[in-house]
Fold these 2 entries.
Entry 1:
Amino acid sequence: MLEISNLTHTYGSGPSAHNALGGIDLTVAEGELVCIVGPSGCGKSTLLRSIAGLLRPTGGQVVLNGSPVEQTPDNLAVVFQDYSRSLFPWMSVADNVSLPLRRKGMDKKQRKEAALEALEQVGLEGAGAKYPWQLSGGMQQRVSIARALAYRPALLLMDEPFGSVDAQTREELEDLTLRVRGHHNMTIVLITHDIDESVYVGDRVVVLSKAPAGIVGDLRVDLPGPRDQITTREHPDFVHLRAEVGRLVRGMRSQPASASQ
Amino acid sequence: MNRVLRAAGRLWAVPVVLVVWELVTRAAEDLSFPPPTTIAASMYEMWLTGPAERLWLTEAALENIPASVGRLLAGWLLAGVIGIALGIAMGRLPLLFRFLDPLVQFARAIPPPMLLPFFMALFAIGPRMQINVIVFGIIWPVLINAGEGARLVDRQHLDTARVFGLSRGQRLFQIILPSAMPKIFAGLRVSLSLALILMVISELVGSTDGIGFQLLDAQRSYDLPGVWGTIVVLGVLGYVLNSAFLAAERRVLSWHRAAKQTT
Ligand SMILES: Nc1ncnc2c1ncn2[C@@H]1O[C@H](COP(=O)(O)OP(=O)(O)OP(=O)(O)O)[C@@H](O)[C@H]1O
Ligand SMILES: [Mg+2]
């Protein structure tokens, strides 16, 4: 569904130019949940912004469902890194969630219902009439997840969505992500710098190198059963994969006898 | 009850000043500085000795105050609408900004009273000329603030609008305009007080009614308590307008204040 070929991006030009993406090739199949990990500042957000059509890469191509991404594609939603600047403070929570639904041809009542349903999914029933600034950080991030869910995108991009919430909320939101992907058959690309998170949430973990970012590892995650914050994290395969990803992120060579394929 | 007490707490200085003023002016016996009681009597005479069926308002009160306030509000609203529309267009369209900004900087550097002769020649004396003077004199704070507010919309808000495919109308009315609203209100507030000043000035030179005209009239007939009384009316008018504006701002920008306090 998503094919990225030889994607490069350079910010600026001349001596101050910064080469952020150094030729990325990546294919994501429909329904997959791919986690992209990489060290801070390596170019993860740049990659995501080029997939979303928010940035025109200086080289290479992003193809989504057969057509090259030039402007922001339909059927794509983003959960941004900084939740406090992604929701509109002058609108109620329900209005924030239902705002993008107008172009889906829904009337007012349908939009409202869809918004309330999405809020319920993320455990925020009854918060619709509140304003974003009346909610905690974790709740705000839930609202922006609800906004993305109500939109029913074919592809959901998440940029370090849980980076700035406390550990417990983070686990809850990870499980929420795993739950909702089961409901709608969404393809999800989740960017994170947290190695544990990438292995816990992903079907696949793609590791980026330091700038200019290139892919240094692509590991399939085969963990048994529904994932669970306690038992999955103590499973030997999890522990092994985590070490493997950690090594790759730190720029060490991968061990030959690994769980990767 | 609590609110009344708080208001009383805020206004305690008013009676003190009035009493001191009364005592000083009575002692000085200067004709140019009549005591407040004389001013009050003159105001009563001027505005409130009409027939009962018109709520005791005099002819002068019914003619001059609504005429002035009407022109002031008409000028302010017109300046607000034009200033917001043009300012937002300039804030979002860099080309338009580059083209118009020098003109705006030039036009706003002209002290508005200097324009009076020009506008008088253009429109002849009357409400049309006065409203034009007001609009031209007060539009700049709104225009410049609206432009800045529209230019500085959070990039993440705009990215969000793009990702979720918001229409042009939605982007303008649901994202850009609300983002710029705090700045727009700051501009509107400055414009409102400027509007009062320009209203009086335009009535002093080119009018046959209005509070400014009455001020001039009182001055010409050496009615000094009358002059003072008109000035007091202007002060009260300014205070009332500003209070009403602040109340409206509190309602419209409640999200802004609250969002600021929590982050
Ligand atoms: N608009 C820009 N102009 C110039 N350089 C930029 C711009 N945006 C990002 N960069 C640079 O590109 C590099 C990659 O940025 P990017 O935001 O993609 O990193 P990231 O992996 O998302 O980082 P983080 O983990 O901190 O979110 C950084 O070194 C950054 O300084
Ligand atoms: Mg980033």
Entry 2:
Amino acid sequence: MTEVLADTAPGESVSLERVPDEDVRARLLRLGFLDGAVECRHRVRKGPIVLRRNGTEMALGADLAAEIEISHAEADR
Amino acid sequence: MSCHETGGCDVDADETVALVGCPNVGKSVVFGGLAEQYVDVSNYPGTTVDTTEAAFGDAKLTDTPGVYGISSFDEEERVTREIVLEADVVVNVVDATQLDRDLFLTLQLLDMGIPTVVALNMMDEAEADGVDIDADALEAELGVPVVPTVAVDGEGIDELRGRVDEARAPESTPIERWFDELPDDVEATRAEKTLLVEGDEPTAERVSTGKVVADGGVPALTDVGQREDVYGHRRRRVEEVAGGVLSREERDSSWAERFSDLMLNPLTGTPIALAMLGAIFYFIGVVVAQKVVDFLEITVFGEYYNPVVEGAIESLLPAASWAEPIEFLLINGNLGLLTITVQYIVGVLLPLVIAFYFVIGLLEDSGMLPRLAVLTDRGLNRIGLNGRAIVPMIVGVGCVTMAVITTRMVGDRRERLISTALLGLAVPCSAQLGVIMGLLAGLGLIWWFGYVGVLLVVLGVAGLFLDRTLPGDSTPLVTELPRMRVPRPRNILRKTYNRTKMFLREAIPLFGATAVAISALDYFGGFAVIQRALAPITSLIGLPQEFARVLLLGLVRRDFAAAGMTDMALGTAEMFVGLVVITLFVPCILSMVMILKERDAKSALLMWVGSWIVAFGVGGLLAVIL
Ligand SMILES: Nc1nc2c(ncn2[C@@H]2O[C@H](COP(=O)(O)OP(=O)(O)OP(=O)(O)O)[C@@H](O)[C@H]2O)c(=O)[nH]1
Ligand SMILES: [Mg+2]
């Protein structure tokens, strides 16, 4: 069972492994969100999730977060 | 060519300099600093995107919508891509606090071979964040001029202006290794080739249709795109460049960050958002839409302007019969071109537009908008919208006409349609709400709850229905959260001024034409005909025939309809049904014109007819139940 972004809790550091939606993937790639670990900064219950990387924050809707597969970076802070 | 040869030197110069950068990096402030006097805001042809132009020496300076890269994911990106492809020089504004994010676009511009100067903006914030960037090293690394700036304080703008001439692009960049993949015979510029290998569809279409496909041998250029590879490789270059020039000192989180955290936590964010929305509603819906507008309409126009103009026209025009229709057109009491039409534009629309753009400017510059979107995303998902649609819905309670403009923010066509339709249908505007609240108060509190309940049900059902029936899927929320800032008054005022000017320029002719058409209908007795034609419908919802007059008044302005009901002798249930019907029934003429302007004629017509059906359907249902 792979883990998805929607399951992460605030404070966890994860890498986004598979983003099915092609446009969304290209947009995230452009901003560097597929380059390595990103921090899950907030999540609204059943709502969007806010990711952060090098001071850039991105919000992703819940449906999207449910289909993005992730892996945990070695050391969770 | 310079304007010494061509004579006049205006914004139609041949050379163009485009300001390009990610959203919110300060492009427009840099633009304001570089621009010489004359600034012209206009709508980019065929889109809902506004662009701003000004004279810059012999050249034309263009401000573009913010984008994270040159491609075609949305309308803004398509507009910026077009402008970049046509520009001779690009001033790439980069946010020094977000170097790693912004350099992607910079490297892309250089890959495209576009002569570029980099303005390294927000140096003040970078310093406060403990970020130190070696601008000289960055200049050496990129091979193009890099000028540190603090645009809001004018720092570095003169140097930037001086170095625009030095704009250049490196002779060759690593992108070229992908050019081999393109068929040998493509006739494309380096910029187009870059976009081709990135799989940019509009470019692929343009380049392949530019050639004669007669021999059928042209390979489909859409297939050669290797976006992932190219983007991934460019990202690695970005990391290298950024790593080499940037050093970061850990600082405590700033107030902006802490406030942002509060906003994004529903427990604290919801009350803050509600308080803020309440304040916005109070400002637009009560202070401006009622107090200021009342003063202008009743005192300025009612007591001074209209009587004076009417007197003047009456004494100017001879009492001959040929002059009578002209006089009617110019000064009739419903929508005279020189009286009530001017009153609507100057007395109603202008204050609302100014107030509204002012508030939008505040929300934009403070970084509030995307955070509101995050908070409300879940609820709006249910009716086929995403969080970005919160703004039109809130503004709509202030003034539907204004809200229709904000539907530009909500993403793609489908979402714009849904939010516009819901606005036109079930969101009562504050002008009407005032009168309706007064009438309902007379009926009793329970009717007031009933009224709100019926509207919410209609809103929800209509949203669900549109979400199910319209083709396509709702787009999920994907949005960057810019840092929170205290807005700079100058920037807000400049934006408000430019946008208001642009709005009036587009809206005045439309309203003028509408006024003439309605007056003509009125003059030739069209109203009475319509009133008779509506008789079966008014009886369907159990109301007397005079109610049709109220509906027609409601076309001109929603609050007129509500006001018209005050002097009808109706039973409690009839009154309730009537109020629901005039709320659901088509919005006022101003907002209809806005809908027509923002959407296409077909959607506007569908919404118009749809709201008739819903209004009378719901009205009929209520008449049966009650
Ligand atoms: N502290 C600081 N703030 C700045 C600077 N330059 C711009 N700003 C602020 O940044 C915000 C965004 O500026 P704009 O010029 O509207 O940004 P833009 O790039 O045109 O944004 P979009 O058109 O939305 O893409 C405003 O609140 C400005 O006041 C700067 O050098 N320092
Ligand atoms: Mg701007």
